[in-house]
UniProtKB/TrEMBL annotation:
EC number assigned by the record: 2.4.1.-
Cell cycle is among the record's keywords: no
GO molecular function, one term: UDP-glucosyltransferase activity
Lineage: Eukaryota, Viridiplantae, Streptophyta, Embryophyta, Tracheophyta
Domain Glycosyltransferase N-terminal: 15-252
UniProt similarity note: Belongs to the UDP-glycosyltransferase family.
Record-linked SUPFAM superfamilies: UDP-Glycosyltransferase/glycogen phosphorylase
PANTHER family associated with the record: GLYCOSYLTRANSFERASE, UDP-GLYCOSYLTRANSFERASE 73C3-RELATED
Top class in the EC scheme: transferase
Record keywords: Glycosyltransferase, Transferase
Cross-referenced InterPro entries: Glyco_transf_N, UDP_glucos_trans, UDP_glycos_trans_CS
Keyword Glycosyltransferase: yes
Protein name, UniProt field: Glycosyltransferase
Length: 496
């Protein structure tokens, strides 16, 4: 192995993992923390008290398995940030106007983190910071700790948005709905400014965006949750474009092998009856169940839920439907009660947090209707499950392009515009039950197109699993990342 240590994390190797407080960020970074701990490193996973309660189940599971992972609680002063008490996660922000103060106040965690790190033996080897936590640059500079930046989205998204920025298309194109082609790609990918929006690209977030870019430029390397065989051209080109080390180490969700670990992933404090879900799945034929979930943030309006329901009934498929709206809205609750009664034999609706990886990796699941958040997308890929894509906002539209047009392991339900935009043009946004039924039938029933999609998805799942096994591309990349971090830390000590 070219002199590389196979399991290089020594007892005195100490990684400090700092995710943004949002489920779609904390979950993959907690998985990364677990992967590093499994290589023998000590890991401090930094979060706030409220989020620590969600991650406690996963941390306790890790400790019980003999891994050295410590959950470190750093206060997030909501009041000083102008946020309601307890607003410590993106999914708890009550209105859109509170997003800017949330992001602008994250740096308030820097001093408490420095105090914690100063007391630590072993002293930190490397910080792995979420892209959205640029303030870790100051922690790294002040304490002379190497720092890598973790990117949540697909490399496909990162490269497409980079190309659009390099060609100044965000400035040159004025009509947000105008369709144009992403330049310099090996295939034709058509987007609009609405469907290829960059993170933080709103007028009131310009300072945050600049800070994020500065912190990325100053980083010692980038870490991505993807795998080389999934998007090789995009990864090579991205690495060339950014001109620094890019460590591709996913799919990180494949850390979880047993049901107990999968069950506590993401929100171990949620009250789902995992046993009941598993038991229900056990009674179904392989590949017969459709799983529907739109992630941790997106919400679907009543009118649209009804259409999904009718489309689903018409498709005749069994289903597990994650419906957070049913926990929050009385009108939905009432409709769900009737729908559940009608479909008692066909499916179950889970009203709060669902153990997604436990469900999606079960052999009974044969299709995933997803909002194309990158974690969900990659979890489906890793499980070899074909997708019905229903993007809502952010990077989800480009992830859909990757799935439907590049990988060809899914079909689009037919969304054209982001959900936040659609609320202003209600009727255009709306997708009727026929589209739902048709896409479910294509992916999960007979027919050549579906057969080919399922075959490709299955093969890609195999490739993903191999990438994470010893000797696989992501496994080896993680070894190299650990070695590189140790080397960087050694150099910093020598130069002090
Ligand atoms: N997730 C889950 N249960 C839920 C909702 C989401 O386990 O009820 C997990 C899902 O497996 C994924 C993450 O939360 O790992 C969501 O990330 P993604 O990027 O897919 O979407 P986001 O929630 O950020 O929109």
């Amino acid at each position: 192995m070219n002199g590389l240590i196979k399991n290089p994390g020594q007892p005195n190797t100490h990684f400090v993992v700092v995710p943004l407080m949002a489920q779609g960020h904390m979950i993959p970074m907690a998985d990364l923390a677990l992967l590093l701990a499994r290589r023998g490193a000590r890991v401090s996973l930094i979060t706030t008290p409220l989020n620590a309660r969600r991650l406690r189940g996963a941390a306790d599971h890790a400790t019980a398995s003999g891994l050295s992972l410590v959950l470190v609680e750093i206060p997030f002063p909501c009041k000083a940030a102008g946020l309601p008490e307890g607003c410590e996660n993106i999914d708890l922000i009550p209105s859109a106007n509170l997003f800017p103060p949330f992001f602008k106040s994250l740096h308030l965690m820097a001093e408490p983190l420095k105090s914690y790190l100063r007391t630590q033996p072993p002293s930190p080897t490397c910080i792995i910071s979420d892209q959205c936590m640029p303030w870790t640059m100051d922690v790294s500079n002040d304490l002379s700790i190497p720092r890598l930046v973790f990117h949540g989205p697909s490399c496909f998204f990162l490269l497409c948005t980079l190309k659009l920025a390099e060609h100044q298309l965000y400035e040159k194109v004025t009509d947000v709905e105008e369709i144009f082609t992403v330049p310099e790609l090996p295939q034709r990918i058509e987007v609009s400014k609405l469907t290829a929006q960059r993170f933080f690209d709103w007028p009131e977030m310009k300072d945050v965006m600049r800070h994020v870019q500065e912190a990325e430029d100053a980083a010692d390397g980038l870490v991505l949750n993807t795998f080389y065989e999934l998007e090789p051209w995009y990864i090579d080109e991205y690495r060339r474009s950014v001109g620094k080390d890019v460590w591709v180490v996913g799919p990180v969700s494949l850390f979880h092998k047993d049901a107990s670990g999968k069950a506590v992933r993401g929100d171990g404090s949620a009250g789902v009856d995992h046993g009941r879900v598993l038991q229900w799945l056990e009674g179904r034929e392989n590949g017969s169940v459709l799983f529907i979930s739109f992630g941790s943030i997106a919400r679907t309006r009543m009118k649209q839920l009804v259409e999904i329901g009718f489309g689903l009934e018409a498709s005749g498929r069994d289903f597990i439907w994650a419906m957070k709206e049913a926990e929050e809205n009385e009108e939905v609750k009432k409709w769900v009660a009737e729908f559940e009664e009608r479909n008692r034999k066909k499916g179950i609706i889970i009203k709060g947090w669902v153990p997604q990886v436990l469900i999606v990796t079960h052999p009974a699941v044969g299709g995933f209707m997803t909002h194309c958040g990158w974690n969900s997308t990659l979890e489906a890929v890793a499980a070899g499950v074909p997708m019905i894509t229903w993007p809502h906002f952010s990077d989800q539209f480009l992830n859909e392009k990757l799935v439907v047009e590049v990988l060809r392991t899914g079909v689009g339900v037919g969304v054209k515009l982001p959900a936040f935009y659609q609320t202003q043009v209600d009727e255009e946004a709306f997708l009727g039950r026929e589209k739902v039924e048709m896409s479910v039938r294509t992916v999960m029933c007979g027919g050549k197109e579906g057969e080919e999609i399922r075959k490709r998805a299955g093969e890609l799942g195999e490739t993903a699993r191999k990438a994470m096994e010893e000797g696989g591309s992501s496994y080896e990349n993680l070894s190299k990342l650990i070695n590189q971090a140790m080397e960087l830390a050694g150099n910093r000590v020598q130069s002090m």
